[in-house]
Amino acid sequence: MFELLNSINSPEDLKKVPIDKLPVVCDELRKFIIESLSHNPGHFAAALGVVELTVAIHYVFDTPYDKLIWDVGHQAYGHKILTGRRDRFDTNRKHGGLSGFPNIFESEYDAFGVGHASTSISAGLGMAIASHLSGEKDRNIVAVIGDGALTGGMAFEALNNMAAANHNMLVILNDNNMAIDNVTGGMSQYLLDISTSKAYNRLRSKVSRALGNSKAKRNIFIRFTNAVKKMLTRQTNMFEGLNIRYFGPADGHNVIYLVRILQDIKKIRGPKMLHVITTKGKGFKAAEENQTKWHAVGGRFDVTTGVSLDKPNDKPQPPKFQDVFGHTILELARKNPKILGITPAMPSGCSLNIMMKEMPDRTFDVGIAESHAVTFSGGLAISGYIPFCNIYSSFAQRAFDQVIHDVALQKLNVVFCFDRAGIVGADGPTHHGVFDIAMLRPIPNLTIASPMDESELRNMMFTAQLPDQGPFIIRYPRGRGSMIEWQTPMTQIEKGKARCISEGNDAAILTLGPLGVKAQKVVRRLADENIHIAHYDMRFAKPLDTNVLDKVLAGYDSIVTLEDGCIAGGFGSAIVEYANAHGHRCKITTLGIPDRFIEHGSVDELHAECGMDEEGIEKALRSRF
User: Fold this and answer.
1) Cβ atoms within 10 A of the Cβ of 76, count?
2) What is the pTM of this model?
3) Is-contact 353 365, C-beta < 8 A?
């Protein structure tokens, strides 16, 4: 089935394939990705959409000497398969296996690590200037930016710098009008105007047929189309206005045409952009028809129909935390007309789409622009509204300054909901939301809360939208919670107030967030052995419940803290700091993420690796005796 693909273990092998056979390579590569992901789930639709582009790039350019940067990184599955990792692709996203994103420690072909969006042009420009300074004038730098990543402010900053620097670099814009959800904003409309100008495309088609396929005539065609583009599109081409040579839009699924245009563009020095039009999920009907659902697949499926092969669990399941958020914000917004929802390109991922469907005028997808999302929320808050700004925890790192300067400093009532806090699993170190507590705990005026269960999430959201709460951060994990019956009436929580889960005289465990459920199970087991552990769900990393801390630190010789964030500077560190400041000399063991980046794997595997599973919690508690 994969006769040609099985003979390709490097781009050098690919270059030996006759150009007229490249469509066969693309067909085999697409089928290989579909079959692989049908039993080992991962990012799906984006990988299928760039098959032809991936083949064309490696066919034309001399990678790894020529540098290829993927943005966003989940487009790079085909790239990995063509660069010597086909035989290991069944380990993709598994513990100890291939990363789901480009990783410089995994292959020399992965020129730059990327899991977040809008970084490729900046990194590529750095490489282009480094090549110039090193006298490597024959080295090409290619940055492929897609899946909505051009909506990010960093990409525009890089384009501006790229134009001024005037060094040799090619940006390939993979335009599929999608991120996870449909791309929103002016840039999306601008690209649509370029790609759908009827007059331009009609003339372009006629000229192409008239000139034929010779190399000289292709060069005439390229010059001609670029000359008329400015006249026929709605406005002057923005990229050309920045002194970036613009080519396209090109059919991103015609591999032979892509090879030829890349061969021509390769000879042109200076900053360039190739605009290609692709279909996310190309070649798999179910993914083409529902691109958001098939952005990433969560289970096994039939390669022909797309029907799930995993047996449904008929037992009642707790909801996902993000769905609890989605239903709860809508419930609150129905009662409070000042509540608004904001997300940077993740409406379905964070479940804001639930409110968006009923209240489209009160929900805002601002694109992949976390820093803008925060300051935009600040502008709404200072005008009397209550924005719930939902950002994945690891993506919130990109808006650190805005949280300080534009929200906390002014004590604005912005509610930050940090989805995917803690270990997220197979997405790995670029996506683990483990730094938010340590990152934000030093900032004045902030409240940092983490619910142990779904009911607590609802109560925290209710509390955060009450008057005069100031900046309020609620962090919660990816995946399901622990409560079957979660739609309980919401009540206010006193800010900084912990709750006692169980009393005990032998030792104490202080937990923050949903790992408290695991601790609760361990405490119950130990009670059967007549070992009685006091368990407090602290609920807030800031402010701390000092009444509970004074009681616990004075009453127990041994204390364990547990959190789903990094130990250094995190919740456990806050407890140690308080104990030292107030003269307590009890022994404190902190459980959480150690001082290293945690690789990819299942959540259970990674919790066990860090000693945060039930076995690790029990071991820490038993060691106190």
Assistant:
1) 28
2) 0.86
3) no
